[in-house]
Amino acid sequence: MELAELETRLLPFCRERYADPDVRVFDVTKMPGHAGFAYGFSVQSKGVTESWFIRLPPPNVQWKGTADVLRQVEVLNALDGTNVPHCSVKWSGDELEWFGCPYFVVPKLEGDVLRLGPGEWGAALGKDKLLDLGRQAMTALAGIHRLDWHKTPYLGEPIPFEDDVVRWDRFYERAADPECLALVPEVRARLLETLPKDAPVGVFHGDFQTANLFCSKRGDLLAVIDWELTGIGATLNDVGWIATFSDPEAWPKGAVARPMFLDPDALIGFYQEAWGEPLPAIDWFRALAAYKFAIITGFNLMLHRRGKRDDPLWEVTKFSMEPLMARARDLLR
Fold it and tell me: pLDDT, tens digit, for every residue of 62-75?
C-alpha cells in the first residue's frame, strides 16, 4: 500500500478509535525489515501525540499462514500478563472497511533490533552486558514456550516433528546453486532417522534470532517482535535457531563472515536455566535449523535471481549454504 493511500485510510480509522473528529495523522512511514508489511504513524488528539505501528498482510496473497496477521495477534494477546517483553495489541480486526484487509496496531517502541556488526551499537555493549542481554532473551523465550498452547486455538494443531523436516523438500527442489546443497539427501535422511521422541511441544516463535530482539540502546530487551512464523510444535526449534545463528562453525569465514551474538552453549545454558529441565536432542534441533536455513537461502536466492523478490543480500548469504549443511551433518554424528 502506498503511504499516501495508507494515510488517507488511517484518518477515518483514528477518528473512530479516538472518538475525535479533529484527530491528526502524520509521520506515516514504511518500517525497515523483510517480514510482512509494517508501517509507523503518529496521531495527535486533544493535545496528546502517540506513535503506533501497524501490520498489514502483503498485497495480492491469501490471508493464510505467514500472511495471516491475526495469528500474530493470537500470540501477542496470549503473552499479556506474562513477563515476556512484547508489544500488546491496541487494535486489531478482520473488517475490511478500514484497510481492505486484516490488521493489527501496537505502540511504537523507541529502540532498535540488536545489531552486532562492526561499528553497530550492539557491538559496543561489552561482554557483560551482552551476556545479560542473552539471559534476558533466553528467559523470554522460555516464557513464550510456557504458554498453554491449548489457549491459542487460532494457531491450529502441533506440527509433527517429521513434517518439520520434509516440508522443506519443495524449497530444496527449486533452490539456486544446488551444488551448494549437495549434503541435503544425507542430512535429511539422518534427521528422519533420529527424530526426537520426547521434546516439548508448545507455542514457538519461528524466527527467534537477534534481528527480532527489539532493545533499548542500553541493552535491555523491550520486545520480541515479528511473529509471522509462529505456530504450535517443537519449541526447541527456537533454541536451535538462535544457537545456529550464533555458531561460528555454521557460517563462512573471512570477508563474508557474519557477526555472532553469544556462544551457542551460553545461550542454551541460559535457556535451560530458565526452562528448569533438561533439553532433549538439542543438537538435533541445531542441525535442523542449519539444514532449514541453508535451503531457505537457496530458495530465496532463486527468487532474487528470477526477479520475483529482489534482494541482493542473498548473493552474500549464499556463501553460508555449504558450511550450514556441513555443520548440520556434524551435529548429527
Answer: 999 989 999 999 99
